[in-house]
Amino acid sequence: MMARLPLSLLAVCSALLTPAATATNTENGQWVLVNEISRVSNQSLMWGPYRPNLYFGVKPRIPKSMIAGLMWGRVDDFASVAQTVRHTCEQSDDMAGYGWDEYDVRTGGHQVIGDPRNSIDIHTDFVKVEGGENGGHWGVRVKGIPRTGAPADLKTMAVFYVGLEGLGSLSLQNEPDERGLVGDVTLEGSIPKLAEFKIDITTGPSTNKPPRVGHEKYWNEKPLDRTSYHSLKVPEEDVWKAKDIFFTGLRDNFLKVKEKYGESDLPPPWQAFTIPNTFGPGNFHMVQKVFEGGFEFDILYSSASAPTAMTSDILTEKIRTIGSSFADRFENSFPRESPFNAPRYRQFARNFFSNLLGGIGHFHGTSVVDRTYAPEYEEEDEGFWEEAKAAQARPDAAELEGPTELFTSIPSRPFFPRGFLWDEGFHLLPISDWDMDLTLQIVKSWISLVDEDGWLPREQILGDEARSKVPQEFQTQYPHYANPPTLFFVLTKFIDQLEGFQSKRGDSMSEYLDKESFSNMFSSDDLPAVHLKNPEVASEYLRSIYPNLRRNYFWYRKSQSGEIRGWDRNAYSKKEGYRWRGRTPEHCLTSGLDDYPRARPPHTGELHVDLLSWIGMMTSCIKRIAAAIGEHDDVAEFEQYEYAIKKNIDDLHWSEKHKTYCDATIDDFEESVHVCHKGYISIFPFLLGLMEKDSERLGKVLDLIADPEELWSNHGLRSLSKKDEYYGTGENYWRGPIWININYLAIQRLMEYGSKEGPYQKQAADLYKELRVNVVENVYKNWEATGYAWEQYDAETGKGQRTAHFLGWTSLVVKIMNMPETVSVVATPFKDEL
């Protein structure tokens, strides 16, 4: 559907073409296009299932506005109701897999939730319809299909709720009836920035049946062929506690029923466990339906700004068209190369990618931050980790800041439903192949959170709902803690693709402005790549984020700096050495590699090779951004840093004794020594593209990767060498298990080096071909057996473990399948995506 320019913009566009306006035509035209892109994009992204911590929850990208969600549960006995009601995604629910079979953030998709305990599969078809100026319409079809072996008289309750978190109103339009509501239920409301709207909850098809057996007297009071409705006023900060609110209503109704009929004459649970019908004003509204067997109903949101309302017929048609269009677009965006072009990998790939997109959410709220800047946080004294721990335990050290908001994808709906800096850059690599404009919005949302010092919190735990999923000891963020800056991956890719598009240009600014019909100047269909097709718009975007990006870069250099001169280390540069803050003897959480072995005990003179590599990758990226927007003085400065970093990686971190890259520390004789635990740390300069193709050290890195007694396994690269004393010990989180994000980086680099003439080309190409197959086949095998993507995979058996439904960076297998089966010097890849 075409998105039309408002009349005010038409006037501006017309003025741009007059002779008097020639001098400012380009500048004004850019302003028009940038603003129109922003408007249309925001409209298409306004609504979504942006509460990914729920099996199904909807909200707009407007803080303190409206939230909605779905609950369901089996109601055929009194004892188990509390355990069977589903709302938030929980690993303990033992689902038989769940998630989106197909999904696009701008249009919608189809989700299936396999619920064996409740003997039912829940299907949700969510669609969006353009129209009006307030995000348009949306609808969701909820369908319950009894699972094989389910009782013929299976009884299920379904609950849909809507809550207002701020200003606005919402009220029932049906005639109130204490016995329940007949027919469709209609709510109408108004919220700032959304204006007026209505929500219809339909009765569904005639195949829907209420339970046929029940308490006769109570049936006359509250027949289940009607819809129960409950409205109430709750504190705005508690609206997200929908399940608690629902259970309070169930309890109140049950106690009244019990008091009236007594325990000996209680109605059955499918009647007793219903919410009381109340019709007063409130900011929280629930509707409850009880079914026997399968069921179906629609939830239809209509914006009053659109000329026609949302209907079930429109929903049906959109469900049909979205399914076919997604399939075609997905195959074009991610064509699978041999051996993964077989039909059995099709749904696997779609499922993984759809659930990555389905994990995108909008978050808003306060954060817990410790800005005491205690001297112990400088970590400059012996035993600094103990001093820091004591400082963190001081009363009132942490305070609430904000609120802030973030548009982001997440690692895992049940376990990590919030934004992680370490993860997000990996998430956005496949997303950018699908929709670069969406990707850039997410990057901008993250970069907007950079504070005046340049710090970007590594974990975004915004608001009470997000904090409810995080143990208290992990909620506080510290402004001296860093995290791998993976957002620079995506910005590098953006620059690469801009250069590619610039060679063929596509539609430029002048071509947009020269179109005869200004009313059709810009279409929402252009959105996935409009920044790539218009260098002027891309430049404006880069300029908008550059100040915060630059400040963040220099924050890393200052806050994570390491000591070179003070320990008389021999290195090209006395400045390019870095140390993760936040170390303890067992962990370096800030590095993202948690329990990976480091120097024992921690020392203020440590230098970390992975962190220096990250700074090198950042430097390369921000140098290119600076060049793209004409910041030439910055380019010259970054070039010096980049050269010095590459020199220091070898000078400070290459161990001739161990033939690998290592961390460095200070020994008892106050000498700088290497601490070598071969594993992911050892190959970071390789992973981040900081090695020359003809370097002897590259050969040694490839040997380490290829050795089955070190990193190589039939399921992917181990995180720690099999020979290391810490292999498989302790928490065993990053001490052997296979992680897909690092394997992806390795495969990407092997493809690069395998495509370039050099002494190690054949070795890299052979490793690339085998590792690519090993990783994908193992993830596929686990998905086929369990229905899930997993956080990590056992290094010996390949079995998925830790968090299930980990469709953050594990979804990178979609990109790996998209890579060529083999590489050679002729098949040079299109730029370096990293």
TrEMBL record:
UniProt EC number: 3.2.1.106
Domain of life: Eukaryota
PANTHER family, per the entry: MANNOSYL-OLIGOSACCHARIDE GLUCOSIDASE
Taxonomic classification: Eukaryota, Fungi, Dikarya, Ascomycota, Pezizomycotina
Protein family membership: Belongs to the glycosyl hydrolase 63 family.
InterPro entries in alphabetical order: 6-hairpin_glycosidase_sf (IPR008928), 6hp_glycosidase-like_sf (IPR012341), Glyco_hydro_63_C (IPR031335), Glyco_hydro_63N (IPR031631), Glyco_hydro_63N_sf (IPR038518), Glycoside_hydrolase_63 (IPR004888)
Transmembrane segments: none
Name recorded for this polypeptide: Mannosyl-oligosaccharide glucosidase
Catalytic activity: N(4)-(alpha-D-Glc-(1->2)-alpha-D-Glc-(1->3)-alpha-D-Glc-(1->3)-alpha-D-Man-(1->2)-alpha-D-Man-(1->2)-alpha-D-Man-(1->3)-[alpha-D-Man-(1->2)-alpha-D-Man-(1->3)-[alpha-D-Man-(1->2)-alpha-D-Man-(1->6)]-alpha-D-Man-(1->6)]-beta-D-Man-(1->4)-beta-D-GlcNAc-(1->4)-beta-D-GlcNAc)-L-asparaginyl-[protein] + H2O = N(4)-(alpha-D-Glc-(1->3)-alpha-D-Glc-(1->3)-alpha-D-Man-(1->2)-alpha-D-Man-(1->2)-alpha-D-Man-(1->3)-[alpha-D-Man-(1->2)-alpha-D-Man-(1->3)-[alpha-D-Man-(1->2)-alpha-D-Man-(1->6)]-alpha-D-Man-(1->6)]-beta-D-Man-(1->4)-beta-D-GlcNAc-(1->4)-beta-D-GlcNAc)-L-asparaginyl-[protein] + beta-D-glucose
Localization per record: Endoplasmic reticulum membrane
Domain Glycosyl hydrolase family 63 C-terminal: 311-819
GO cellular component: endoplasmic reticulum membrane
Residue ranges of domain Glycosyl hydrolase family 63 N-terminal in the record: 44-272
Pfam family, any one: Glyco_hydro_63
Biological process, per Gene Ontology: oligosaccharide metabolic process; protein N-linked glycosylation
UniProtKB keywords: Endoplasmic reticulum, Glycoprotein, Glycosidase, Hydrolase, Membrane, Signal, Signal-anchor, Transmembrane, Transmembrane helix
Pathway: Glycan metabolism; N-glycan degradation
Membrane topology field: Single-pass type II membrane protein
Task of the protein: Cleaves the distal alpha 1,2-linked glucose residue from the Glc(3)Man(9)GlcNAc(2) oligosaccharide precursor.
Keyword Disulfide bond annotated: no
